[in-house]
Amino acid sequence: MIHNDIKYDIVMFNMSSMYDWDHGIVNRNYNVVNTLEKREDIHRIISVDFLPIGIKKAIGHYFKNILWEIKNAEMIYGDLTSVCYQKSEKLFVYSTIDSIFSLKTVVRELKRIEKVLNLQNVIFWSYNTLFIDFIGKLNEKLFVFDTVDNWSEHPEYLKLKPKVKILQNYQTIADKANLIFTVSNSLVDFYSALNRSKDIYWIPNGVDYDFFNNENMADQQTKLDNCQGPIIGYLGTIEERFDIDLLVEVAKANTEKTIAICGPVWDGVKKQMQNKTRNLENIIFTGRIDYKLAPAYLNKFDVAIMPHKVNDFVKSMNPMKMYEYLACGKPIVSTKVAGIEQFDDLIYSSNDTVEFINLITKALAEDNLDKQQKRRQASKNCSWDKRVQIMVDLIKTKLS
């Protein structure tokens, strides 16, 4: 029996930090926390910043997430290496560098904070594949793991831990998690190979529909205001998954259009991007875009693109930008990445370079108000409220 009057406390191990979220760098994890915070059945959330690995990461983490974030904050706990402060009525942020010294210390501090905040029905909810030592140690009634991408195929996470260790951690998660959510169907298969098929659910990414479908953002000033149109746009981080060669061919075939790359270029691909696009004057790079301005930039696009490589890592993904593009009513041209099959009738897709370029022309020519409305409606059915409702219902059922 599900008890609707029970309120739950959550200790959430994040895949990023509050500092990043406050500075407009958001992800699924951010949206889930924000949505949970609004729910009446959630009492309190301890949001655990991404735990640093190594001295260099710890130093950067200390200055950004501990010294910077505690300014004017109401402290719940603090020592030389850790802080816990109240972010809002329900949300408390714990940030530490003790992960490079002693995980037992992290456990001890979290349990102390749980006691101070009088947490009762604790759900341990994690996004962090790199740290699995906390399972069963946080007074939790349930351990939930939300799997965002396959970190054993992600170049950045492989810099932090060897692939074999990450795979061992996934095996531990498969063995011990009471519930597993995945961002893509391929991750369900991934866990199946680890002999886990029960209590695992594919819950795709979502969108804050009202935020992105905001006509008031259309007049917001952006770095694209004086660009020659039409604008072929990409919003997001440029990393290894981004097909730079495909971008170059798109730019060469559309010299009369502007190719707008709105987002940061990671160091691992920066040199390659600079070398290959140096002589292409119709490509502009805006740099990092604050999440608050994302709808304004998307409103400037005439067509939105997702030129991602198709490999094992990309197969484990479910691009949030796809839902955001749709919420703004934009025609989308994409390579055949995981997730687009949900919107076969709304997204133009091809892995062939020539066809990809031709589809951009087709998308621009066929766009109309009716198609724009269909895209918006499709994204409206994928709200974060609906995604998180599914998650919470599964948790309540498991606990009943």
Automatic annotation (TrEMBL):
<dbReference type="InterPro" id="IPR050194">
    <property type="entry name" value="Glycosyltransferase_grp1"/>
</dbReference>
<dbReference type="Pfam" id="PF13692">
    <property type="entry name" value="Glyco_trans_1_4"/>
</dbReference>
<protein>
    <recommendedName>
        <fullName>Glycosyl transferase family 1 domain-containing protein</fullName>
    </recommendedName>
</protein>
<dbReference type="GO" id="GO:0016757">
    <property type="term" value="F:glycosyltransferase activity"/>
</dbReference>
